[in-house]
Amino acid sequence: MILKISGLSQGSHSFDFSGNVAEIGLSDPFYGIYYLKITLEKSTNQLFLKANLRLCGKFICDRCGSDYNNDLITGFDMAYVFSKQAKFEDDVNLKVLSVDADKIDISQEIKDFSDLAVPMKNLCSEECKGLCVKCGQNFNTGTCNCIPEENNPVWSPLAELKNKFKE
């Protein structure tokens, strides 16, 4: 996504964007419509960008294997410094722009921060009960008649410790 910065007066500017996630270069697991709110603070020698992005993702639950949809919200801040010489090296949140720059490209930041918004552990709900290890029954939708196996005695000290913390 390219933002035109030439002609912007000094001060605060707000922009709202929305559209299909493919328009901003995103694909699976993202789908549908994105909403992007950008605030630009422009001064003589620098530009500060604050972005908030909301999108939808399709995921597979790590416990029960069910498909589910989830709204993701992410945001990022970027500082741009106008300079005739590259005094600074580009950093994660700091970019150097030439004095003549008339636009900034935030496409890569949108992709990176969208990927970071994906949870490390995908759960359809915090209360997800998972699957039976023997028959594969989804415990969220029913029960099974499997007989639980006897625990290996090697793990009994750990089970005792677990029971202590439950009390």
Over the alpha carbons, how many angstroms does the gyration radius reach? Answer: 24 Å
| Total strand segments | 7
Shape: elongated
What structural class should be given to the helix and strand makeup?
Answer: mainly beta
Terminal CA distance reads 54 Å
Low-confidence stretches: none
Keywords:
single chain; 167 residues; mainly beta; 2 domains; five-stranded mixed beta sheet; two-stranded antiparallel ribbon; elongated
What does this structure look like?
- The protein has two domains: 116 residues, no CATH class; 39 residues, no CATH class.
- The longest helix is centred in the C-terminal third of the chain and has 11 residues.
- Strands 2-3-4-5-6 form a five-stranded mixed beta sheet. It has a two-stranded antiparallel ribbon with strand order 1-7.
- The protein has 167 residues and is mainly beta.
- The model has no long low-confidence stretch (mean pLDDT 87).
- The chain contains two helices and seven strands, in the order E-E-E-E-E-E-E-H-H.
